[in-house]
Design brief:
2 copies of one chain form a homodimer.
Chain A lengths: L5 H12 L3 H12 L3 H14 L7 E6 L6 H16 L3 E6 L18 H5 L3 E6 L9 H13 L4 E6 L4 H7 L4 E7 L11 H6 L2 E5 L6 H15 L12 E4 L8 H17 L2 H27 L2 H16 L4 H17 L2
Parallel strand pairs in A: 1-4, 1-5, 2-3, 2-4, 5-6, 6-7
Helix pairs in contact in A: 1-2, 2-3, 2-6, 12-13
């Protein structure tokens, strides 16, 4: 990838538009690259592919570890492929992959059936290490999947925090998976997450837990009434399912389609998509600003100098930053 | 707070150094303010208070919702106050508070005993909305708590993701709470989180679950051997406890002290603290750079112009960002 040149980009684009999954994968890698040349190339590529994006249903799936997200996504994905002739892309956001250098060992094989299917594409996406967080890369990856012809893009988040709030800003519908017995009240679930939810799914409703799940669903439905409505005006729904027994999956897909219909008939779909684009734009702008100042040779020299100071002495970081502010003004306004 | 002037800052500092909790709270609010004047004031205040910081044991406590973090922190905190005459500060990071405008309803009352105790201080801390993430504010809040005389600072994170990785970079010891029955293998726990862990605590080991907890602890101990050692060379420990019955808490505190001893006697404590300062410095630097460019009047005008364009037309965000890059160069290098 290191020596990718503009002609390669054309081949990459053509492959991607033809639905080639290897090209799609390579294009996402290019967008995630921190190399300056790659960034230039990928932004240009994205810009050209932008008109081919936007046509999928974008679904956010979240839930705490152990909620069964992978099994659920596999069940939903296979149903969509087999019964509805859809092409399904799964973007798994792993905010913890920084330390282990991007390795999410074992995760690739979690969705066995889906990962072997030609109409599916599974890909962990990186979170930005410094700025823009989840937003920038995932938004780009969604558009690339859409340009490659995927009808449904599922964005999976592993955490219960910042990532979900970000993902909510880039999907059409947001599903939160709960497990039976996690409590029939809303304790433990943060208010901020609940505000994102369009569809609350109680997973693992199988065997002896089936009845308990239904009871919990009823209680959760009541509890959800206490929350302010979604901005879209949609009334949050609660569903139960068993991903392993593949029960309740159709029902959930129907609710997703109903939600999509609701957004479209009320004119809110376009509004929401526009908001997504605007939020992405702010991310891109902020990155552009930071990148501009950060890569100025004079600023680089200043950073190297102050980082050497903090390493070599016991000088306080706040004092150094104060000095840096003064130095920045001098750099840009001396003339 | 809107018209806080430098003399007020002196009173605030004096109050904080005298251990006044209201002053401490106000100082943290000042640091979290997005107002430019407040930022200037708070950075200067922090710089002056910096020599008074650094003296606490900094403990990170993480775990998925439902793991019983609040009950555990209350049990540990009360034990430290009552048996060890410590002053305990709890900084609760809530990455989801953005959308609901900072409200974390009900959370304040979760730690009943602790919140009523004069030797405790409980405070939710904001995560940055744009840059620097968790790091900048929490690091500042830790130092303020230390300057106010708190011997133990507990940083609680609600998520299982980005926040934990960030918190790991600013604490001495990192505890992960698990609940019994969450599985005796390490499935569902992300590798990146496990790499942070110094002490794995199986909570809710009470009643009929006690024996199961001990079995799981033994299995987890074995599983942890498969992970690379912590950078510090410390061998991760696994403990069980019942926060409700207040059992096992002393044992956990002993392990924390043992870990602290290990770091200090091996000379790694200073190294780790230095790394924390360096990481904070990079956060501060990046924020300083972004803030510098972002607040230039010419850049502000450019941002307003391009944001109006994206709102009024269907122009693509990537094209607008490309144009912005060119405009930035002209702004700063025209002369």
């Amino acid at each position: 990838m290191a020596h990718l040149s503009p002609p390669d980009i054309n081949a990459l684009k053509a492959g991607l538009l033809a639905g080639n999954r290897a090209s799609l994968s390579q294009a996402i890698t290019l967008c995630e690259s921190s190399l300056r040349l790659h960034q230039e190339l990928s932004l240009n590529m994205l810009e050209e592919l932008l008109p081919h994006g936007g046509k999928s249903i974008r679904i956010g799936v979240s839930g705490i570890p152990g909620a069964g997200k992978s099994t659920f996504i596999e069940a939903l994905g296979m149903e969509l492929i087999e019964k509805h002739q859809k092409k399904v892309a799964v973007l798994a956001i792993d905010p913890t992959s920084e330390q282990s250098g991007g390795s999410i060992l074992g995760d690739k094989t979690r969705m066995d059936d889906l990962s072997r299917n030609h109409n599916a594409f599974i890909r962990p996406t990186a979170t930005s290490t410094q700025l823009g967080g989840v937003g920038q890369y995932t938004q780009a990856a969604i558009i690339l999947c859409e340009a490659a012809g995927f009808d449904v893009v599922i964005v999976e988040t592993v955490g219960v925090g910042q990532s979900e709030i970000s993902v909510n800003k880039m999907v059409d519908v947001f599903l939160l998976l709960q497990i039976v017995g996690a409590g029939d009240d809303l304790q433990g679930m943060k208010r901020g997450i609940l505000e994102c939810v369009d569809l609350l799914v109680i997973n693992k409703a199988d065997g002896e837990l089936k009845q308990k799940a239904q009871l919990e669903a009823a209680n959760l439905k009541n509890a959800l009434h206490l929350f302010p409505q979604k901005h879209s005006g949609w009334s949050r729904q609660v569903k139960t399912c068993s991903s392993i027994e593949k029960k309740g999956i159709t029902d959930i897909w129907n609710a997703i389609e109903e939600h999509q219909q609701y957004l479209k008939s009320s004119g809110k779909f376009e509004v929401q998509r526009k908001q997504q684009t605007d939020a992405w734009f702010v991310d891109l702008q902020n990155n552009c600003l930071f990148d501009f100042i950060h890569t100025q040779p004079s600023v680089q020299a200043l950073l190297i100098k102050t980082r050497a100071e903090i390493s070599s002495t016991n000088s306080n970081p706040l004092g150094l930053v104060r000095e840096m502010k003064i130095a920045l003004k001098e750099l840009f306004f001396r003339k």
